[in-house]
Specification:
Largest interface: A-B, 34 and 44 residues
Strand order of the largest sheet of chain B: 6-9-10-3-11-12
Radius of gyration of chain A: 24 Å
CATH class of the largest domain in chain B: Alpha Beta
CATH architecture of the largest domain in chain B: 3-Layer(aba) Sandwich
Structural class of chain A: mainly alpha
Number of strands of chain A: 4
Distance between the termini of chain B: 29 Å
Helix content of chain B: 25-40%
Helix content of chain A: over 70%
Order of helices and strands of chain B: EEEHEEHEHEEHHEHEHEEH
Strand content of chain A: under 5%
Structural class of chain B: alpha/beta
Shape of chain A: globular
Largest sheet of chain A: 2 strands, antiparallel
Strand content of chain B: 25-35%
Oligomer: heterodimer
Radius of gyration of chain B: 19 Å
Largest sheet of chain B: 6 strands, mixed
């Protein structure tokens, strides 16, 4: 073979400053998280006279704030990697919150009956001694209530996925730009949630729901454990499976994915349904935390979720982003949110600070593309 | 004469009011290079997309190795041994060499015996071996292919076809975006693939390229077949006349 064919390109020599910039752009979100933690720790030691981090309550509050952001951001990460956007998740969260509350209210009066039916269905004849043992006593009520909570969770999650299905269908089959399509769904989900809730907050009195939403195990809130499990599942899905590679391929070069035989329409529908599912879980968690479902449950979180994904390294042009990055992004925003309150800064500064961090994230993404070009052309 | 590996009979395709292909028929034999010539909009791309399963013609039939291709999706067509290399390279710039080579047919191993995970290492080593076979070195196989040169990216697309044992290779303007040495690489590669009895459909605007590599030339003109000539029995003038619809 002719030697001229050997397109050997030596690894480009980068200058010291470019290399430093490269490291910063790769790891800046971790560094940034560490910096703001140090900042709030020092500030609260001086100003408030208490430790910011050395407090179970503070860490729990941080975790819970991060969970609410993360539940919307997880599914959104996949959608953004595929170079789409889902703006409807804020109100899908609200829809799921209202639905969970409505279902629990609807089911609670029948919980004992539901409990009995559940026993019969699972155990058959062996259920008889259990019925007499638990019926009417405290445990019986608990078991009955958990039956209605489980049904409500399943029902609310299923209903939350309906707008996701429609989003995916619009974007893939009807070729509606996702920005516009999901903006329309934002309005629809908001209206439907408000209609179902009658324009008010739907409160519930279910001890099991309250316990699941606020309980802890070894000081770790259940919902934090649940969010970690979700994050692990999504990380596996995006980083280690064919489904993940196809998500990146669709975001990187849609035509390449089509030509490689990826069923892109079906893939996009699943992505939007996953996005709606995690947003729905966010709403269900909200209802269980506050024992009330509100149509506005996800409204303030939408901006934070979008920010978390971009801070985590995703790009508007698609093809980039990781679940780990999104988790860091959600933590950064939670720390800013909670930290500013803790050091007695007017809460409105939260919006200013989060907005500033979004702009920093975009600037860093820009410089990253510049560095990539430098690396490939030098 | 051996059996043709690919036969198109009366293939027609419309897009709304536009008749993109009208009653096109041809045969292709193993180890033969067929050049598709024609002006912009003559139907060259539609024809190869009809073969590769991206478009489905309304009329006519395409058979490959005795099998009817109608209704098959691109993945199924590829599985039969028809690989397409497109002018826009059909690579996902954000994925590395290994993942691009194996896109749609990833190697998966099972963690703890049940959990399927992508075997990135295996895909990288396999693709490094394939590229080495072609005499192309890539600086870092973990880099996204967007960071590689046009020739390297083309080489990845070609090595993908070779790895998957393509029996019919469709090339759409494979040299359009390449420098002169890289164009030679692609032309030599076509000749080598022909020796391996791979059938090749080659689209180019460049008549020099066409005469350098092809055995037969099929000329399309506004969706119709304007003519079919052996490369050794025709010349630039005749082909251009056919392309203009004036022969």
């Amino acid at each position: 073979m002719d030697d001229t064919y050997k397109q050997d390109k030596a690894t480009p020599q980068l200058s010291e400053s470019t290399r430093l910039l490269l490291i910063i752009t790769k790891a800046w979100s971790w560094v940034f998280l560490a910096l703001i933690l140090v900042f709030f720790e020092v500030w609260s030691q001086i100003e408030v006279g208490r430790s910011f981090l050395w407090s179970t309550y503070n860490l729990q509050s941080l975790g819970v704030a991060a969970v609410q952001i993360l539940m919307l951001a997880l599914g959104l990460t996949l959608v953004i990697v595929a170079s789409h956007i889902d703006l409807s998740i804020g109100f899908i969260t609200g829809l799921a919150a209202v639905m969970a509350a409505v279902l629990i209210r609807l089911l609670d009066p029948f919980t004992n009956d539901l409990y009995l039916i559940a026993l019969d269905m699972t155990l058959g004849a062996a259920a008889e001694p259990l019925k007499t043992m638990f019926l009417g006593d405290l445990l019986g009520v608990t078991v009955g209530q958990s039956v209605s909570v489980v049904i409500a969770i399943a029902g609310a999650a299923a209903i939350a996925m309906v707008p996701g299905l429609i989003n995916g269908w619009m974007v893939s089959k009807l070729k509606v730009p996702s920005f516009i399509g999901t903006l329309g769904m934002y309005g629809i989900a908001r209206g439907v949630a408000l209609l179902i809730a009658g324009g008010a907050t739907v409160s519930i009195q279910n001890d099991v729901a309250r316990d699941w939403g606020n309980g802890t195990h070894f000081e770790v809130p259940y919902i934090v454990v649940f969010a970690i499990l979700c994050a692990v599942a999504f990380h596996y899905l995006l980083s280690s499976t064919r489904f993940g590679v196809y998500t990146y391929a669709i975001g990187g070069n849609y035509q390449a994915a089509v030509r490689a035989g990826v069923r892109v329409d079906r893939h996009l529908i699943i992505l939007f349904m996953l996005s709606a599912l995690t947003a729905g879980f966010g709403g269900i968690i909200y209802t269980m935390r506050f024992s009330a479902g509100a149509a506005q449950a996800g409204e303030p979180i939408l901006l934070y979720a979008v920010a978390a994904v971009f801070i985590g390294g995703a790009s508007l042009t698609g093809g980039k982003g990781t679940v780990v990055g999104t988790v860091i992004g959600a933590l950064i925003i939670a720390v800013i949110q909670f930290g500013l309150v803790f050091i007695n800064v007017a809460p409105y500064w939260q919006f200013v600070a989060v907005g500033g961090v979004i702009i920093i994230a975009v600037l860093i993404d820009q410089s990253r593309s510049t560095i990539d070009r430098l690396r490939s052309t030098s | 004469m051996t059996e043709p590996i690919l036969s198109a009979r009366g293939v027609s395709k419309r897009f709304g009011g536009v008749q993109a292909l009208k009653d096109v028929s041809f045969d292709l034999y193993p180890g033969e290079v067929l050049a598709l010539a024609g002006d912009n909009g003559a139907g060259k791309s539609t024809l190869i997309k009809a073969i590769s399963g991206v478009h489905h013609p309304e009329e006519g039939s395409i058979t490959f190795d005795g099998r009817d291709l109608s209704g098959l999706l691109p993945g199924a067509v590829r599985d039969l041994g028809i690989e397409t290399i497109y002018q826009d390279l059909a690579l996902a710039d954000n994925l590395d060499v290994g993942l691009n080579l194996f896109l749609g047919r990833e190697i998966v191993r099972h963690l703890l015996g049940f959990l399927p995970v992508l075997d990135r290492t295996k895909m990288r080593t396999e693709s490094a071996a394939i590229l080495q076979n072609l005499g192309i070195r890539v600086p870092d196989p973990t880099l996204p292919v967007g960071n590689l040169s046009g020739g390297q990216r083309q080489a990845i697309a070609i090595s993908r076809a070779i790895y998957w044992n393509a029996r019919l290779l469709i090339m759409d303007e494979p040299t359009a975006a390449l420098g002169v040495p890289e164009q030679r690489l692609v032309r030599d590669l076509i000749i080598r693939l022909r020796e391996r009895q791979v059938a090749i459909i080659y689209i180019s605007h460049n008549l020099n390229d066409i005469f350098a590599v092809s055995d037969r030339i099929l000329v399309l003109e506004r969706g119709r077949k304007a003519g079919e000539r052996k490369a050794s029995e025709t010349d630039d003038n005749e082909v251009v006349k056919l392309m203009m619809g004036s022969a």
